[in-house]
Amino acid sequence: MNLPPIIETERLVLRPPRMGDADAIFKSYATDSEVARYTTWKPHESITETEEFLRRTIAFVEDGSRLTWAITLYGDDLLRGMIELRPHTHKADVGYVLARKLWGKGYTTESLRAVLDYADGNQSQAAEILGITRTTLRKKLRSMGLPE
Predict the structure, then answer these.
(1) Choosing a second label site near 52 at 20 to 30 A (CA), which of 41, 59, 68, 102?
(2) How far apart are the first and last CA of the chain?
(3) Are 131 and 87 in contact (CB under 8 A)?
Protein backbone atom coordinates (compact mmCIF):
# COMPACT_ATOMS: atom_id res chain seq x y z
CA MET A 1 0.00 0.00 0.00
CA ASN A 2 1.25 3.47 -0.86
CA LEU A 3 1.38 6.02 1.91
CA PRO A 4 -0.94 8.97 1.54
CA PRO A 5 0.57 11.73 -0.59
CA ILE A 6 1.94 14.95 0.77
CA ILE A 7 -0.74 17.61 0.34
CA GLU A 8 0.10 21.31 0.40
CA THR A 9 -2.32 24.16 1.01
CA GLU A 10 -1.65 27.87 1.33
CA ARG A 11 -0.77 27.52 5.03
CA LEU A 12 -0.32 23.81 5.67
CA VAL A 13 1.52 20.70 4.62
CA LEU A 14 -0.24 17.39 5.27
CA ARG A 15 2.18 14.47 5.29
CA PRO A 16 2.24 10.88 6.50
CA PRO A 17 2.96 10.59 10.24
CA ARG A 18 6.28 9.11 11.38
CA MET A 19 7.72 7.84 14.65
CA GLY A 20 9.82 10.97 14.98
CA ASP A 21 6.56 12.89 15.58
CA ALA A 22 5.97 11.31 19.02
CA ASP A 23 7.57 14.12 21.02
CA ALA A 24 5.66 16.83 19.14
CA ILE A 25 2.36 14.98 19.66
CA PHE A 26 3.06 14.46 23.34
CA LYS A 27 4.07 18.07 23.99
CA SER A 28 1.54 19.86 21.77
CA TYR A 29 -1.74 18.04 22.44
CA ALA A 30 -1.65 14.46 23.73
CA THR A 31 -1.33 15.57 27.36
CA ASP A 32 -3.88 18.39 27.06
CA SER A 33 -7.13 17.39 28.80
CA GLU A 34 -9.09 20.06 26.93
CA VAL A 35 -8.00 18.57 23.58
CA ALA A 36 -8.66 15.00 24.77
CA ARG A 37 -12.14 16.04 25.89
CA TYR A 38 -13.18 16.10 22.22
CA THR A 39 -11.53 12.81 21.28
CA THR A 40 -12.00 9.12 22.02
CA TRP A 41 -8.82 8.91 24.13
CA LYS A 42 -7.67 10.14 27.50
CA PRO A 43 -4.69 12.47 27.92
CA HIS A 44 -1.42 10.61 27.64
CA GLU A 45 0.53 10.30 30.85
CA SER A 46 3.82 9.26 29.25
CA ILE A 47 5.68 9.53 25.98
CA THR A 48 5.44 5.72 25.82
CA GLU A 49 1.65 6.01 25.39
CA THR A 50 2.16 8.46 22.56
CA GLU A 51 4.73 6.23 20.89
CA GLU A 52 2.35 3.25 21.07
CA PHE A 53 -0.47 5.36 19.60
CA LEU A 54 1.85 6.44 16.78
CA ARG A 55 2.95 2.84 16.09
CA ARG A 56 -0.71 1.81 15.71
CA THR A 57 -1.47 4.83 13.54
CA ILE A 58 1.46 4.15 11.22
CA ALA A 59 0.51 0.47 11.00
CA PHE A 60 -3.02 1.45 9.88
CA VAL A 61 -1.51 3.77 7.25
CA GLU A 62 0.90 1.11 6.02
CA ASP A 63 -1.74 -1.62 5.74
CA GLY A 64 -4.04 0.75 3.84
CA SER A 65 -6.93 0.58 6.29
CA ARG A 66 -6.78 4.33 6.99
CA LEU A 67 -5.47 7.46 5.36
CA THR A 68 -3.78 9.59 8.00
CA TRP A 69 -1.91 12.84 7.62
CA ALA A 70 0.17 14.85 10.06
CA ILE A 71 -0.87 18.51 10.01
CA THR A 72 2.14 20.82 9.83
CA LEU A 73 2.41 24.54 9.17
CA TYR A 74 3.87 25.44 5.80
CA GLY A 75 7.62 25.92 6.17
CA ASP A 76 7.72 24.11 9.55
CA ASP A 77 7.71 20.30 9.62
CA LEU A 78 6.67 20.09 13.31
CA LEU A 79 3.47 18.06 13.71
CA ARG A 80 0.62 20.23 15.09
CA GLY A 81 -2.26 17.80 14.65
CA MET A 82 -3.57 14.91 12.57
CA ILE A 83 -6.45 14.23 10.22
CA GLU A 84 -7.61 10.77 9.20
CA LEU A 85 -10.15 9.12 6.88
CA ARG A 86 -11.42 5.85 8.36
CA PRO A 87 -13.44 3.46 6.17
CA HIS A 88 -16.60 1.70 7.28
CA THR A 89 -18.00 -0.54 4.53
CA HIS A 90 -19.15 1.96 1.85
CA LYS A 91 -18.62 5.14 3.82
CA ALA A 92 -15.92 6.74 5.92
CA ASP A 93 -15.64 9.03 8.86
CA VAL A 94 -13.13 11.75 9.49
CA GLY A 95 -11.20 12.18 12.69
CA TYR A 96 -8.94 15.05 13.53
CA VAL A 97 -7.02 16.59 16.38
CA LEU A 98 -5.19 19.88 16.60
CA ALA A 99 -3.03 21.52 19.26
CA ARG A 100 -5.25 23.87 21.27
CA LYS A 101 -3.10 26.94 20.63
CA LEU A 102 -4.03 26.59 16.94
CA TRP A 103 -7.79 26.33 17.45
CA GLY A 104 -9.96 28.97 15.83
CA LYS A 105 -7.58 29.72 12.96
CA GLY A 106 -9.30 27.58 10.31
CA TYR A 107 -6.57 24.93 10.12
CA THR A 108 -8.93 21.99 10.63
CA THR A 109 -11.30 23.23 7.93
CA GLU A 110 -8.36 23.85 5.60
CA SER A 111 -7.03 20.33 6.29
CA LEU A 112 -10.41 18.73 5.70
CA ARG A 113 -10.92 20.61 2.43
CA ALA A 114 -7.47 19.52 1.26
CA VAL A 115 -8.16 15.87 2.10
CA LEU A 116 -11.55 16.03 0.36
CA ASP A 117 -9.99 17.70 -2.68
CA TYR A 118 -7.40 14.93 -2.77
CA ALA A 119 -10.14 12.28 -2.59
CA ASP A 120 -12.18 14.16 -5.20
CA GLY A 121 -9.26 14.44 -7.61
CA ASN A 122 -8.14 10.86 -7.02
CA GLN A 123 -11.54 9.27 -6.64
CA SER A 124 -10.59 5.86 -7.94
CA GLN A 125 -7.58 5.61 -5.62
CA ALA A 126 -9.47 6.94 -2.60
CA ALA A 127 -12.49 4.76 -3.35
CA GLU A 128 -10.25 1.73 -3.71
CA ILE A 129 -8.46 2.48 -0.45
CA LEU A 130 -11.53 3.47 1.54
CA GLY A 131 -14.49 2.02 -0.33
CA ILE A 132 -16.23 5.40 -0.39
CA THR A 133 -17.41 7.99 -2.90
CA ARG A 134 -17.00 11.73 -3.26
CA THR A 135 -20.68 12.16 -2.42
CA THR A 136 -20.17 10.37 0.89
CA LEU A 137 -17.22 12.62 1.73
CA ARG A 138 -19.17 15.78 0.84
CA LYS A 139 -22.12 14.63 2.98
CA LYS A 140 -19.71 14.18 5.89
CA LEU A 141 -18.39 17.69 5.40
CA ARG A 142 -21.95 19.10 5.44
CA SER A 143 -22.86 17.03 8.51
CA MET A 144 -19.93 18.62 10.34
CA GLY A 145 -21.39 22.04 9.55
CA LEU A 146 -18.47 22.93 7.28
CA PRO A 147 -18.93 24.59 3.88
CA GLU A 148 -18.11 22.50 0.82
Answers:
(1) 102
(2) 29
(3) yes
Q: How many domains does the chain have?
A: 1
Q: Whole-angstrom Cα distance, residue 31 to residue 45?
A: 7
Q: The domain that contains 121 carries what CATH number?
A: 3.40.630.30
Q: Which run of H or E residues covers position 82?
A: strand 79-88
- The reply to whether 53 falls in a domain is yes
Q: What is the pLDDT of residue 116?
A: 83
Strands 67-73, 91-98: pairing is: unpaired
What is the rounded distance in angstroms from the CA atom of residue 101 to the CA atom of residue 44? 18
Backbone φ and ψ of 114, nearest 5°: -65, -40
Q: Is residue 19 part of a domain?
A: yes
pTM over 0.90: no
